């Protein structure tokens, strides 16, 4: 847990050994979020007894090691879809939502894909076109089954940020008819080792009650390459959580939007 510029051991501040990992905290999220918030207030007021480590001395890993599943939304930003249309010399058409379709997701393999902030990722030898894409990631805090859109965000523990690294030359999804797009479509191009840099922070959902107005920026070698906003999502985070909960066990730990 980060308070100010100091990192604290979650298990020590809550007094529960089950909170010795982030997955352990998420498995007990309804109680853990309350205990962590109380601990943060004690520390901020100077009443906390647990000693922390200065952030500048900490080596940060990915905030979730390792989520059970990572579902990544495909082509879910209006500006991204417009960019893809321009690249093909076409005018932007109606979105999948406007066509009455459901959001589609592909899966990233958790243990091989997730790396922490500042990690060096090796480019796969089979690709000459590894691309990047900044993403909002919703971290699920409790199992969700068949939840309505208006209640979907109640199942989100918090939000972090991800980089969706894709070998675009391995599988060009633009050549595949939209109705065939599924959770398997993007796997080959997005499941290479280190393909999901994640973090460093999970910000509690209570601090971000409305996730559809967050700036998203990405730089490559100090050059700004992406400047977008979650308000440009075609399917909102809540709509994606609700859809996934209706089709599978959404006790998944991350959904990249």
Overview of the structural elements:
This protein is of the alpha+beta class and 257 residues long. The protein has two domains: 2-57, no CATH class; 70-256, Fumarylacetoacetate hydrolase, domain 2 (Alpha-Beta Complex). The protein has eight helices and 15 strands. The protein has helices at residues 10-14, 22-27, 29-44, 78-87, 110-113, 149-152, 187-190, 237-247, and strands at 2-3, 6-7, 53-54, 70-73, 105-108, 114-115, 130-131, 134-140, 156-163, 166-167, 196-197, 203-204, 215-220, 223-229, 254-256. Strand 13 and strand 14 form a beta hairpin.
Termini distance? Answer: 24 Å
Mean pLDDT: 87
Calculate Rg over CA atoms.
19 Å
Largest sheet: 6 strands, mixed
Low-confidence stretches: 173-188
Number of strands: 15
Q: Class by helix and strand content?
A: alpha+beta
Shape designation: globular
Task: Please provide a brief summary of the model.
The protein has about 260 residues and is an alpha+beta fold.
Please write out the topology.
Blueprint: E1 2-3, E2 6-7, H1 10-14, H2 22-27, H3 29-44, E3 53-54, E4 70-73, H4 78-87, E5 105-108, H5 110-113, E6 114-115, E7 130-131, E8 134-140, H6 149-152, E9 156-163, E10 166-167, H7 187-190, E11 196-197, E12 203-204, E13 215-220, E14 223-229, H8 237-247, E15 254-256
Parallel strand pairs: 4-15, 6-11
Antiparallel strand pairs: 1-2, 2-3, 4-5, 7-10, 8-9, 8-15, 9-12, 13-14
